[in-house]
Structure prediction request, 1318 residues.
Amino acid sequence: MRTLWAASARHLLRHPAQLALALLGLALGVATIVAVDIAVASSGRAFELSMEAVNGAATHEISAGPGGIDEQVYVSLLRSGARARLAPVVEGYVDVHGETLQLIGIDPLVDSAVRGEDTNLDNVRATTGGGSASAPAGAQADTLTTATRWFTEPGTVVLAASTAQRMGITQDQPFPLNIGGREHQARLIGTVPATRAGFETLILSDISQAQEWLGLVGRLSRIDVRIPSDVPEDEVLSQLRASLPPRVGIQPAQRRTQQSLDMTAAFTTNLKAMSLLALLVGIFLIFSAISFAVVQRRRVMGVLRALGATRMQVMTMILAEATVLGVAGAAVGLALGMAIGRELVSLVSRTINDLYFVVEVNQVVIPAFAVVKAVAAGLGVSLLAAAVPALEVAQSAPHLGLRRSVIEARATHASRWLLFSSVALGVGAGAIVLFSERSLFAGFVALFLLLLTVAAITPAVLRALAQVAAWLAGRFSPVARLALGDVAASLSRTGVAVAALGLAVAAMIGVSVMVDSFRESLRDYLNRTIRADLFVTAPGPGFGRPERRLDPQVVSAILAIPGLQDHTESRRVIVDSPRGPVPVDALRLSASSHTSIPLTTGDPSRVWPAFERGALIISEPLAWHLQLGAGDSLTLNTAMGPRDFDIAAVYREYGNDRGNVLMSRAVYSALWRDDAITGMGLYLAPGTPLEPVMEAVREASRGRQSLAVTSNAAVREISMRIFERTFVITRVLYWLTAGVAAIGLVSALLAWELERSRELAIVRALGLTPRGAGAVIEAQTGFMGLVAFLAAIPAGLLTAILLITVINRRAFGWLIDLHITPAQLGNAFAVAMIAALAAGLYPAWRAARAPLASDIREE
Amino acid sequence: MSPPRTSVLARVSNGSRSWGRVFRFMQLLAAITMTLAACSPGTSDHVAARTSADAPARPDATETDERALRADTPAPASRLGALDNETLPAGFAAATEPIRFEFPRDHGPHPDFRHEWWYITGHLDAKSGERFGFELTFFRFALAPGDSTAEPVPTGTSAGTARSNSDVHAGPNAAPAPVRSAWRTRQIYMAHFAVTDLDRETFHASERFARGALGLAGAQPAPFRVWLDDWSLESLDPGATSAFNVRLRAADKGYVFDLTLNAQSPVILNGDAGLSRKSSAPGAASYYYSIPRLAVQGTVKRDGQPLEVSGIAWLDREWGSGSLGSDQQGWDWFALQFDDGSALMFYSLRKRDGQRDEHSAGTWLAPDGSTQALSSDDVLIDVNDFWNSPRGGRYPARWRLRAPSLALDVDIQPRLADQELPTDPRYWEGAATIRGTRAGANVAGRAYVELVGYARSER
Prediction:
């Protein structure tokens, strides 16, 4: 047995490149899996922490529509005698030094009763409570001063210590705060210690200050409720409900967190799909790396068996080796994954900030399940990859184990069997798509089956093509025939490597066709919908924030600008409905702007009159999510209570994957008692130059409000930029996948080349120049890259179709027009060839330099 | 309570019962704000930034003075010293000489003074035999002088407003003066409600805070009313006469109180015609009156079951702006109501060395309604028993009180040992019984005792 271990150790040590490749392959595979999970979990956790910081120990919250709740509701609730603690909150988004923070206005006198005391926040309380108890006596007086200033001084705020430091905001120094284009002065009077997580994106002020800054005087964003655990909850809830005005509701506090996280569900599902893809390619890589390491020693094992080692002993040795490799690779992979994860976090959080909500990820969360999953994948696949060839060698008669031909015969047989499996997989994928209807998960299952189809079909395709090519090439050059024939004959090596590359290239084609199709559809959509010459909006972060409103005086000044032919008005808010919050865009459209709404259903001549009478036009994503269409109705909670609205039509919209509702602004302002305007679209009279009008708009708002004044070209450009940013992470992941596949190819080729060194040496002895030997290897790898690419084309296109019509539809609800360009295939071709040729470089260099005599000599 | 905190309490609460209460209130406020925002303003940078030269000129004289003082004396101990010496904050009205009390006006708030309270303690007997002690207290505290409601909105940007800060530069897109939030105020209210349930031998206490805005909490003279959320004292006298005839409502922890209180004795002006001096420093005084006997009728709902009750209560009223002396640990306050219609109030201020401060004082109300001021020398108190709080601290728990000039010698015994309010800081305020002799005749009665400065944290 000792001899076995020695043989094992010596082999690994004598082939450090092989060992390194196997480890690298394993590590990359594991790393990709870990990295994506870390990025997703960290963003989610950061958001939960900030929600916790905002919600505290509140059990419920009372909320209404976008306009909030009348503050008198709070006063009357206090007198209702319900045994619940209540804390009013006024919140909104503000811009400080170009960064978005969430302004939370609270009443500290009642707030601790709701947010404090609960055991859930004990750590938070203890940190601060302990801080005060052990602080020098002077801190007490400081705290008192802070409290006094909080209440009596204008503009006083509290920030997280880390945020203040990062932004360079110091104690007592005034700093500008921009809300919806209006500038205010704030002054920092205290900081939240860094030990309290979740405060990084918050700016705390007194409720009075928040009301004044946000233009919400008289209103509350919500009322947080804590029902003590010793009180019957249902009784208190019904008591509270009885004191609430009709349209104001009370719901569990977690629901808002959940709703916000749900918004990103489609996005994170996509990320996870990418990580699964990485897992899949990673598994291939691990498999090929380890199985090559084993197969390569077929001869050693045959000798060992011939010398009397039992099957069990050989198996144990191989599996122990695989375990050591698997553990080492997984460990390196975990470390690497954490490093990549940290980078991915910023990409993921930026996308979330662009599209969903403000989140600041300061803490990288490493979810246990991700580690377990990655280690299991690394170790499990290593063992499997080692066990299959080891079992095969161990079970063979010792002398057969020495023969390559046996293995190749088996590989050829396997490739035929895989061909049939591939057909079954393809049929399975199709069946799943057809019968799963709306399930996103099933869509992904189908996607992976499809990709596996590529993997399964590739060895057979490779063999067939190599044989044909060898026959063709043999007419011109015997060396070429030899080289290509060898590819077909060494299917056990080449097959898996090409399959992995094919898989990566297919995924790449699929993703890039999808992204390009999406981009083109978005461009068409923007060209169609962004019609006004100028857009004027109250700037600020946060979709549908009520504080984003144009100053009425500014509006009338703008409308007085000469050269305006027409204008549209829009109020964007989020409205409550029995089916959750719904983004509403209340529009005052001019007749000429009707065409800018791309209706997908409904007869425009009927839709627009119905719209003006109060019917809704809903976006494709909303129609998909709520399973509604033209002719259905949707209930929205208006200021007058719930009300049913007819749906006149569905329109195409890529701006918001949660869905959007268009409504006549006249109808909206009557039903929600909200006259504010978030933005305007200005149509200029023909021949009016743009610049002077833009300047006039800025002049009209000067001293009142700083507005976002954007030309239609700029709006399109900004939209496209956000789109590109959203897909950065997709690109990063597929490059990672391509890298994993290339490494797999390198390790496969290296193993192959080492095995064939004798054959190549013979050919060289017969007159092949060193350069020629290198060329043979490059030709072989190039051919393999080509085959991987060819096999990937149909699969890649199918993948794209699946991504567009199934995955995107099911995840986001929108429809995308398929858009295929030669460039997409060209890129995939380039990637496949570059990866293959690069992978062949080192083996080719070795083949050219190898000493002939020692390679020819056998035994 | 940790040592540093104790010293803060001890140092600051030295003036008298009133100052201690004020400080307690301030501390509570500070603790709450601190916990909420988890503010950590106290760093050395912070102090350094507050040198007089750097300090932005703010219209708030109190704070500016305080900052200057504190900047000059960075060591925590001396900073406190500075606070201590700040006997009379600028901008607030001061209790310096006796005034003419007028009712109902003076039942109402005095917002020009920094702090003020309405204190009701009492004993109740239900027809069905249950017995209760209770405390309902409203505190008002002005964070800064001046009537905040009369001010223009401080935006920090709109030029011309009184409070716009000169060092805050208005940006090019300065907002126009927005509408003023109804939440803006400098008046903060706190209330404590405690019930001693003598049958069940349980004690329940809760505290609430609210700002004096939006009708959340407040006080008014005519018709008299002071309230916080749904806890209130409200005049039953629509004519708004001076008679103290009020309805008390408070509910928490399963107890719902709805009582009427009728004054059975005149208003007693404590100290020098209502001016109660707390130390020799000028301005370290308050206006202090009591109504020692209020007849109580009403209902107490306990866990939903209504009980008809009657009993006797005590009103304490005090307001002022002064700050602290220097070396006291806490105080013991006694409010005795004898069955013959007489009453005695006495507060004993304890110095750090355990001795009684010479500014301790009281008032005697004879059965015929006549009153007599009591100086520290007039009243002798011996402690006969102690009670250890499970939350930490050792309280006196039984007293012999003698007033030789009144020929009074009584034993005062708590009706329940644990009547400690678990507020921050904690204090003991509880129902007690009296037994003893006056002028040789047996006397009995009921009392409320307040003990402050005994709580210690368990380490």
